[in-house]
Structure formats: C-alpha cells, structure tokens
Specification:
alpha/beta
Length: 304
Amino acid sequence: MRLGVFVPNVGSSTEPAALIRAARHAEELGFDSVWVADRLLYPVAPRNPYPASRDGKLPAYYQRVLDPLATLAFLAAHTTRVRLGTCILDVPFYNPVVVGRTLTTVDVLSGGRLQVGCGQGWSEDEFEAVGLPATGRGARTTEFLQVLKAVWTEDPVEFHGRHFSVPRSVMGLKPVQKPHPPIFLAAFSDAALKRAATIADGWMPARVAHAELESKLARCRELAAAAGRDPAAFHLQVVAIPEVTPAPLGGERAPFAGSLEQLRDDVARTREVGAAALIFQIELGGEPDAVLAAMDRVRALADR
C-alpha cells in the first residue's frame, strides 16, 4: 500500500518556499505522492454544510487557496520522484478541453507523475459563481470525463454531447502516461460509484468505515466487470483525515479518529481491505514547521 500526503496549497503556508519545503520533505520521507485541494469560494453565509467536517462548517483556511493545477505545475519543477495529485478537483466548474490541456501540461512537465482525483461539487454558492445549476451535476461529470479521456487519447478529437461539444480537431499534445493519467472519483452514492466503476480508474473516499469500504469496493469491481473492464485494474485510494485523541475512543468512532494505537489499527485495516494507497490530509492551513512535523508523525505511524 502506497502512502500519500497533502501539501498546503490552502491557508497560511501557501508561500512558494513553504510549498517547496513540504513537497521535498514528503519526497525525502519516501511518500509516494503529494496532493492539493480545490476550493473556489469561502461563502460568508453558505447554503450547504461542508460534508468533510463534523459540524458542517467550512474551515477558515479555505479563505486562501492557490489554484490546484498551477500549484502542481510549480511543484513538478521542484521535485523529481513524488507523484502529484488533486484531491479533489471539482470538475463541473471547468471546461474539459481547457482543463484537459492544463492537466496534460502538468503530466508532461512532471515527466508523467500526474494523478487526478475528481468530484462533482456540493456547494450551491460555488455553482452560482461559475454560472451553473447545482442540479444535473452527475450527468455533467460523466460527460466531462468522457471528453477528458478523448482529449487525452484521440487525435483528431471529436465529441458531441449534451453539455460539451468538440469539433473534429487535432490536439497533438498528449500525456506522458499511457493511455492517460489515472482518474479517481470521490464517489458515495450508488450512481456515483457506478460512474467511478465504468469511467474512472479507481475510487477515492474519505471518512468511510472499513466494512463499508470493503463492500463498496467489491460492488465497484462487479460493476467494472459488467462493463467489460478489468476489475483488478480498479483501485481504491483512501483519504485519511486524522484526529488524534489522548485516550482511545469507544463506540462508533470515525476512521482515523482516536488514539495513536487506534490509528495504527486503521492503517492496518485499510491495507487489509485492499487499498492501493492511503493519503493523509494533515495540517491544512498549518504553519510550515507544523506541516513538516505532521509528515514525520504520519510516516512513523504508517511504518509501525
């Protein structure tokens, strides 16, 4: 099981030097990948609760966010081995042809180290800002991924759908990775899991209990096989959001919440479920030294 870690493209550690230090430190510690977040707005009066926090509040560090793809291009120039990923890119906010060229550029400039974690968005405020309705985003995401894969693998490219249309055109710049950089979806509903199984290369969940991880991964692989795809090529990449407590937690605790011993058990159980990678979201918005120290702790935790 490979290990990944977030680097701070949000909050107070978004200065160039801090980003370089974080990415290089992750590389030195032997992490396989580094990841950046995507957030378009910090609404003053949000219409929707933030799904990744217990209280539904959007963390204050999202008031300052570097563009994820520009950040990855920057980090590509300051690292040599570590893979570079988005976790997650809210694809309904983008045009697949335009962002496809940007993603291809990152893959080319990094020597084929790009991974793309995608989601379909949840904030009505952000959808308003990009001029799109929040409804129908699932179908739009499906078509987005179809266009993106066409841009990456076909030449000439041509696509005509409900949401996007590409006239027959030559787009000679292609990713280094063949047939294309891996795509992972942050899916939870049955429809989204089916989308992941039939279009993407894997599933990227967070805060999902291990028993549910196992059952849903099996379901995804069944759907992949039914679609004529190789189920063994469909991979699970789990996002861990650690919450360390002085004493063990009882009852129905969330994954990666509890004592260090409980978190070690979570690492082991994630490996047993069959995860290809475990990605730690640590110290988002933290000070540079705190980010590096957290990487050290996570590396030691996983090594145990």
